[in-house]
Amino acid sequence: MSDDVEARLDRLEARVAELEGRGKPPHAAPSGGTVTYQGDVHLHGDVEWSIGYSPDAILELSVARTAEVLAALGHPVRLRIVRTLLRGPANASNLQEAVELGSTGQVYHHLKALGSAGVVEQHARGEFRISARKVVPLLVSMLAAADISGEVASPPVRANV
């Protein structure tokens, strides 16, 4: 499936989900609140994404799967690979140059971890990419990490503790 068709399909699915759940995010618990994120991104193609979950449902998600994704993204070289691929598909040689590695073997080592975690996929012969469905979640993950580290200014938090 072409990138354009896949992106259009993802946008359509997101719109249908929004219309079906308007006023009540999916998996929302009546008393637990909702955690949401969304994006309208124009990097390598156009992507719109919106999702909402109850905090309780988030805390019940697979620890192993979540840890695998966070570990894959937690390595500086892998994060640079992801940042490069968010701008568009690339082959191992392009990635080697972009992230300044000594060999394509090192690139493939990191791509294997990213692929295993479901972050990166091999699209065409020798070409790697980030699927349109994962663009906004990855950007949100990077923004959330920067927010946690204090790198970006966060809005004030109102807490009733």
TrEMBL record:
Gene Ontology molecular function terms on file: DNA binding; DNA-binding transcription factor activity
Entry annotated with the keyword Transcription regulation: yes
SUPFAM superfamilies, A to Z: Winged helix' DNA-binding domain
A Pfam family the protein falls into: HTH_20
Coiled-coil stretches noted in the UniProt entry, renumbered to this chain: none
InterPro entries assigned: ArsR-like_HTH, HTH_ArsR_DNA-bd_dom, HTH_MetalResp_TranReg, WH-like_DNA-bd_sf, WH_DNA-bd_sf
Keywords: DNA-binding, Transcription, Transcription regulation
Domain HTH arsR-type: 68-144
Keyword Transcription regulation found: yes
Protein name as catalogued: Transcriptional regulator
